[in-house]
Amino acid sequence: MKYAPQPSAGKRTGAALGLAASLLLGAWQSASAQMDTPRNPNAEYQKNPNAHVKHVLLYNFTLGGHSKTPILNAMRRLATKYGFQLDVGGTDNYITAATLAGVDVAVFSNGDGDVLANATSLAAVKNFVQVQGKGLFQTHAAAAYIPCPTSGEENLNDPNCKWLARVLVRQYLHHNPDPTNATIYADSVLQGAIPPRSFAGSPAATQNHGRKNPETINIFRNLPKNGLGTNVNTEFMWEQLGCEWYNYRGNPRQQGAQTFDGVAFGPINILMSLDESSYAATDPKMGDHPMSWARKVGNGLTAYMNAGHSDVYTRARGTVRDSIIEKIDWNMMRYLARDFMGCMDANSPKYNPDASVTLLTPGFDEAAPCGTVSNLNLIKGSASAQISFGQQGVVIPTIERGFYRIVASNARGQHVFSATIPGGPGQNITALENKKGAYFIEVNSPKTGKSVTKVELK
Fold this sequence. Notes:
This protein has helices at residues 15-30, 69-82, 97-100, 119-131, 163-168, 324-336, and strands at 35-37, 55-59, 85-89, 105-108, 135-139, 172-175, 180-186, 237-243, 246-248, 258-260, 263-265, 269-275, 289-297, 300-305, 378-380, 388-389, 394-398, 402-410, 415-423, 427-431, 437-445, 449-457. The protein is of the alpha+beta class and 458 residues long. It folds into 2 domains: 9-336, Class I glutamine amidotransferase (GATase) domain (Rossmann fold); 373-457, Sandwich (Immunoglobulin-like). A 10-stranded mixed sheet has the order 1-3-2-4-5-14-13-12-7-8. A 5-stranded mixed sheet has the order 15-22-21-18-19, with no helix packed on it. The radius of gyration is 24 Å and the shape is globular.
């Protein structure tokens, strides 16, 4: 079904709108962001020093007839489970620099058109992604009816092409009935290879995709298996997943790097694809059918997921209810926030066991994420007014009121202590047993942030 765009709130006129605007102006100015779920620093994920999904904005605004409830419920469940703050906005002028302040990942739901037609919103999002290097995640109908063009293949070089269309590369053409039960798989196509389960004559991939791309491989970690018998890809395929699957105006897999207005747009990295042989032969096909992909834009990261027309987040997959799309969406958000990037040296105190790459954006990300020992403060015995060895172990004074995350590693880079502990003026935190040796003490304070100090007890 094609959803006809509806007039947005910002386009209505008349005395009623003026009166409403006057009544709401004060409230709007006093609360630039509409918090739906507060951050929970005690959630297990939030205690991880390498966790970067702390604040998410869901832009739940649509110009068409798609439901906004399923993605809202899914994001609320994820916020509750993983402890990030969730803000929700649903008006055509909600997105501003103020509402994006402090946000790590912005999620755009079923937009059914150019939801950044507002010039202020467009400028804010472009700065958020291209300059600040943050993450933009778009779902389902976010890839529909964005002018550029209105029919046929996109001409992304058209100077009037909308920014969101260039980010997405390919848009909705038509779809299968909802729900169409299909098999989806983690894309593992290597450069130069013909995508599996594709039609004869499909072009070869121009780069490694999805599970074969080190930047995105960890999106597929810890996902449930689906029991497809002897299939060699059992761990990376999921059957009987029902949603309204889109066919697009051209194949995004073939899109390489581009430059628009001096900003680098990276090549498309396909994350998930559909096995078109798993549903009716009479349904429309693409031949090679990507349904989720990622793209670098300037300093930032972007991703798209086709699933999300209705409540695919909880719909039973055969006899199994494992919310596979919700799990994948969460890992995609972690990728967009750079959880899977950082120090990969297990002997370093900055070691990130979740990292699959040391950096994602050259010139923006820290070039040497492991750092060096030479710039650390060496403390011997108790000769320090800041961190010292006491009778019970390492003593860490706290100045700022709030929760401190303390991680201690030995000289081999092994974590020997980690905890989140409240502190405040005049209070000390005692960590680690008083044993001889060299240790790296990482202190994440509520306001100042992270510091690493080497201490040695002889």
